[in-house]
């Protein structure tokens, strides 16, 4: 948003008065030169690891684009009483960095199904399809047959390694599903979601493929309701109809999974304890990090640690997919506050993964699958709250937030102008029922309220 001449002059005056948040040592050129020398020397001293990796840790921040990444870095520092801009994320410490082109075969903008198929199976495909090549068509069961592609999780299992999935979404969601399922539609979570015509043509739902396609050693996330017969009361929310089982075929996949794992240290559970090799902690997606009850719901850090400790018992090594999936879902609802806190939790999970593994035998990869239309605006001062307002005003003589969405539910215009965010109070009321569903619904100026939360 274009600042006015008056606001630019005001900004210049404030900076001249020394209100930029700069530290005294940062005014000395040698401070920056010394930092540059240390960074360069660290890179020069690094020894190339030519070992063959026994383990693979794959961290995926769903929807974690560069703006999200940068804003989360600043917020992480500000939560530690720092200005924030100078904060180093765990992800910042990796020796190699690259960029990925995230288009799908049929769309300029890819979704999590097409991207997950790309990075887990090695081929680009069409929007909304999972574990199939681009010869398969969205929602067309017949096109799926013969076009299945193999994921790295399946290849690792065939090589004798242990394999696992950790996600903050339902385990049947696009990213985790692409590691074990083949589906012409990412939306076929249970058999109730599969059209009759697709069933007739032999297509099966994603939840059933979780059991049948690959013997996965660790499964941690949400998604209970896709595993049980229609009407089955949820063990944690028995009063909530939206949390009840959805399957039409009468199968109880939880019971089937337990029978498959008979005699092994495995059980599908719904509460934090016992915390064994498979846990579905919610009917749908897990709660947002800031809404999580530590007594009932494990963090992504705890889930990552548990998965690694189980998988690393295999002397042949392991493959583990860890998805920070609710970064994406928060952005879809225009809730930057939630998205940034999810990203910070995701970064702590990466740190835990590095702590529990040995670099010489473990390849750790961190990436995002796509971004969101979230932007930085104006010229906020150093150390100013990343979730707050810009010190500048727009040409309409109204303030605006430092972070803003290019589209989504936050847009609102009344009487020919945008709302005055100075009159918008924080939104601290998070609906418990919405959390159980794994979603959030904010109307009106949701984007503004969530940024100021």
Automatic annotation (TrEMBL):
Catalytic reaction list: a phosphate monoester + H2O = an alcohol + phosphate
Main subcellular location: membrane
Signal peptide (UniProt feature, chain positions): 1-22
Amino acid composition bias (Basic residues), ranges on this chain: 427-439
Membrane topology: Lipid-anchor; GPI-anchor
UniProt-listed SMART domains: alkPPc
Cofactor note: Binds 1 Mg(2+) ion.
Keywords: Glycoprotein, GPI-anchor, Hydrolase, Lipoprotein, Magnesium, Membrane, Metal-binding, Signal, Zinc
One Gene Ontology molecular-function label: metal ion binding
Location of the region described as Disordered in the Swiss-Prot/TrEMBL record: 411-453
Positions annotated to bind Zn(2+): 62, 328, 332, 369-370
GO cellular component, one term: plasma membrane
Protein name (Swiss-Prot/TrEMBL): Alkaline phosphatase
């Amino acid at each position: 948003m274009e600042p006015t001449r008056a606001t630019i002059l005001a900004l210049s005056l404030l900076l001249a008065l020394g209100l930029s948040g700069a530290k005294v040592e940062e005014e000395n050129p040698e401070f920056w030169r010394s930092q540059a020398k240390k960074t360069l020397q660290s890179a020069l001293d690094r020894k190339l690891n030519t070992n063959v990796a026994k383990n693979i840790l794959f961290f995926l921040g769903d929807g974690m684009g560069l703006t999200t990444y940068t804003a989360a870095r600043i917020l992480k520092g500000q939560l530690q009483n720092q200005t924030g801009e100078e904060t180093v994320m765990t992800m910042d410490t990796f020796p190699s960095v690259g960029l990925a082109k995230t288009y799908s075969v049929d769309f300029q903008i890819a979704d999590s199904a097409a991207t997950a198929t790309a990075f887990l199976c090695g081929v680009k495909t069409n929007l909304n399809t999972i574990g199939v090549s681009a010869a398969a068509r969205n929602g067309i069961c017949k096109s799926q047959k013969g076009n299945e592609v193999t994921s790295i999780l399946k290849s690792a299992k065939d090589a004798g390694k242990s394999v696992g999935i950790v996600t903050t979404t339902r385990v049947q969601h696009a990213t985790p599903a692409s590691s074990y399922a083949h589906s012409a539609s990412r939306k076929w979570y249970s058999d109730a979601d599969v059209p009759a015509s697709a069933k007739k043509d032999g297509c099966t739902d994603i939840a059933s493929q979780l059991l049948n396609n690959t013997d996965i050693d660790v499964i941690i996330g949400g998604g209970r309701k896709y595993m049980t017969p229609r009407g089955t009361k949820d063990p944690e929310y028995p009063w909530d109809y939206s949390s009840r089982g959805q399957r039409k075929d009468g199968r109880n996949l939880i019971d089937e999974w337990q029978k498959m794992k008979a005699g092994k240290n495995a059980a599908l559970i719904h509460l934090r304890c016992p915390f064994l090799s498979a846990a579905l902690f919610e009917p749908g997606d897990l709660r947002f990090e800031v809404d999580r009850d530590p007594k009932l719901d494990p963090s992504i850090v705890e889930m990552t640690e548990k998965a690694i400790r189980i998988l690393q018992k295999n002397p042949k090594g392991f493959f583990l997919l860890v998805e920070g999936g609710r970064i994406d879902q928060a952005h879809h609802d225009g809730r930057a506050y939630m998205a940034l806190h999810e990203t910070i939790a995701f970064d702590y999970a990466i740190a835990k993964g590095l702590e529990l593994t040995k670099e010489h035998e473990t390849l750790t990869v961190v990436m995002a699958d796509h971004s969101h239309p979230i932007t930085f605006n104006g010229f906020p001062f150093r150390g100013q709250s990343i979730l707050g307002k810009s010190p500048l005003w727009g040409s309409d003589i109204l303030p605006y937030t430092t972070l803003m969405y290019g589209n989504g539910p936050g847009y609102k215009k009344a009487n020919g102008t945008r709302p005055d965010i100075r009159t918008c109070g924080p939104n601290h009321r998070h609906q418990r029922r919405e959390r159980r569903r794994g979603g959030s619904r904010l109307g009106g100026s949701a984007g503004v309220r969530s940024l100021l939360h």
